[in-house]
């Protein structure tokens, strides 16, 4: 018999048994329970709405801080200092705003003049006192203000959650004030979150409304400073309807059926929930990685079919996972073998040719044999050294030790590495820009290996035409950063997604492991290695590590 049929029969029996003896007490308790449930639902929905507003504000804060800390803003601040009238155009803020999923963004100078506005481009060159006033509050979290935006009917005031952050470059300062509008989209989000009717009001005017609530209703208000308020309207129709339904049902029941219905409910619930609990426990263990789980509880009908399907699934999942892991191991070893064979095969050809030349000269008693020997020996030694370097790089990549983390002064480390290049090749200039006191927890030897590799790559990129290599050490509140930037040809955009992959290289004779090792070292340090720079104008590699405060 199907589970649905069993439940229908059980509830039919319960509906036919009168419960008149317990009607008064049950109705009293029911009203209390429904009232508490409604209050709890409203309290939970209000809390959810408050948390939703806080999450919206937090996303806006993070977006503005990420924008301010981005290289785009740093470049913009630098250009604004060097070319005040040309660096920031009318559409600058709009592009930055959309890239960070913001709906409000204005760039101000020190005096509060709008340099660019993403939400109201026409404001450029004019003051915006309401929005610029946020810079004076120094609030860590976004604050509610009314923002002017242009709609179909002209300018209108819409509340928004905004925050302000300065962008300094030298003695120049810009202000980025950004956030999100409290508009129809937010109202719909809060309505879905709370299952209530949500209205956003500003100065008594409804800005946006979403959801619906059937009368009679109860209202809760969330104030957002002087700028706006959020009104949550909850319907009491469902609890009242449930109460009327229960009263009607109780009128059809008899008191003698109460004990029978309770006993029957307990027996059925126990029989039904036992396999469900076993399935829940099995699913939890599968989620923890135990692929061999099998549910052995007895069950029939749809629940029994579900148990059998679950057992088949775990069996197939275990075998599929084992096959996949075996295939991945085989593929990995095949790739290593292919790369090793390819890299080792290239040096063997000149070694073979050199030896064949020596054998032919020796057999012919050629008088040039000593000179040929010296020349061929040099070639053989060079190729043998190349083979050794190839094997060493593969060995380092395969057996990289676990980093031993200690506090490392990155400014001192950078100066130590640069001392190795005190006399760079002709035409190449080293330009250190080092901020002192930047400390990170790192393995000094591994970090030195990464930095030496990056400086060496930068010099190789400048081998043909010369140029400059700038090593920059700087720190933020959370990150310690070392940048190696050159003025070489740069890295094409199509290569950047693969540049840190093992065995990927564009250099003649390269193994493609240098940057892969560097990226892996940074990853095991809890940091990351990023590549930047414009193609054709140079490359910039950034080592980013958690700062040791």
Automatic annotation (TrEMBL):
Q: What is this protein called?
A: histidine kinase
Instruction: Describe the location of the Histidine kinase domain by residue ranges.
Output: 339-549
- Identify its membrane topology class: Multi-pass membrane protein
The protein's matches in PANTHER family, at most eight in alphabetical order, are given as:
SENSOR PROTEIN CREC, SENSOR PROTEIN RSTB
Q: Which domain of life is it from?
A: Bacteria
Species name? Stigmatella ashevillensis
Q: What InterPro entries would the database entry show? A: 2C_sensor_his_kinase (IPR050980), HAMP_dom (IPR003660), HATPase_C_sf (IPR036890), HATPase_dom (IPR003594), His_kinase_dom (IPR005467), HisK_dim/P_dom (IPR003661), HisK_dim/P_sf (IPR036097), Sig_transdc_His_kin-like_C (IPR004358)
Can you say where in the cell this protein is located?
Answer: Cell membrane
């Amino acid at each position: 018999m199907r589970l649905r049929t069993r439940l229908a029969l059980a509830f039919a029996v319960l509906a036919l048994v009168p419960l008149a003896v317990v009607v008064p007490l049950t109705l009293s308790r029911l009203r209390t329970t429904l009232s508490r449930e409604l209050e709890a639902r409203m309290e939970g929905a209000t809390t959810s709405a408050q948390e939703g507003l806080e999450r919206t504000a937090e996303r806006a804060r993070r977006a503005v801080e990420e924008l301010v800390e981005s290289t785009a803003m740093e470049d913009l601040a630098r250009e604004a200092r060097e070319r005040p009238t040309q660096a920031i155009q009318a559409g600058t803020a709009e592009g930055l705003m959309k890239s960070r999923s913001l709906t409000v963004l204005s760039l101000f100078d020190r005096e509060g003049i709008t340099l660019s506005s993403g939400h109201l481009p026409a404001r450029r060159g004019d003051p915006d006192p309401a929005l610029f006033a946020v810079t004076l509050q120094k609030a860590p979290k976004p604050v509610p203000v009314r923002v002017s935006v242009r709609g179909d009917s002209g300018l209108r005031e819409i509340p928004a959650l905004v925050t302000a952050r300065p962008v300094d470059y030298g003695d120049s300062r810009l202000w980025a004030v950004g956030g999100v509008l409290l508009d129809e989209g937010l109202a719909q989000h809060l309505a879905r979150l709370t299952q209530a009717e949500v209205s956003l009001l500003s100065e008594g005017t409804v800005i946006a409304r979403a959801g619906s609530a059937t009368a009679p209703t109860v209202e809760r208000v969330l104030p957002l400073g002087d700028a706006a308020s959020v009104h949550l309207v909850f319907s009491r129709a469902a609890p009242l309807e449930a109460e009327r339904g229960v009263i009607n049902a109780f009128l059809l029941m008899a008191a003698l059926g109460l004990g029978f219905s309770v006993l029957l409910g307990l027996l059925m619930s126990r029989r039904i929930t036992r396999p469900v609990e076993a399935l829940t426990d099995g699913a939890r263990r599968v989620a923890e990685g135990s692929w061999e789980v099998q549910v052995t509880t007895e069950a029939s009908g749809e629940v029994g079919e579900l148990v059998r399907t679950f057992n088949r699934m775990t069996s197939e999942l275990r075998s599929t996972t084992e096959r996949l892991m075996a295939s991945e191991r085989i593929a990995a070893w095949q790739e290593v073998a292919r790369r090793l064979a390819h890299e080792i095969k290239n040096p063997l050809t000149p070694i073979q040719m050199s030896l064949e030349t020596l054998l032919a000269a020796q057999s012919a008693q050629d008088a040039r044999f000593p000179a040929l020997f010296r020349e061929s020996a040099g070639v053989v030694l060079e190729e043998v050294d190349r083979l050794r370097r190839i094997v060493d790089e593969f060995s380092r990549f395969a057996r990289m030790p676990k980093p031993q983390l200690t506090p490392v002064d990155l400014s001192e480390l950078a100066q130590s590495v640069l001392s190795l290049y005190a006399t760079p090749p002709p035409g190449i200039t080293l330009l250190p820009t080092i901020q002192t006191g930047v400390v990170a927890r790192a393995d000094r030897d591994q970090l030195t290996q990464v930095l030496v590799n990056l400086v060496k790559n930068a010099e190789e990129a400048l081998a043909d035409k010369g140029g400059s290599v700038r090593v920059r050490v700087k720190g933020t509140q959370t990150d310690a950063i070392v940048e190696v930037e050159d003025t070489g040809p740069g890295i094409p955009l199509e290569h950047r997604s693969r540049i840190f992959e093992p065995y990927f290289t564009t250099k003649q004779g390269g193994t493609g492991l240098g940057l892969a090792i560097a990226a892996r070292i940074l990853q095991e340090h809890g940091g990351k290695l990023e590549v930047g720079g414009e193609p054709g104008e140079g490359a910039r590699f950034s080592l980013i590590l958690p700062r040791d405060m």
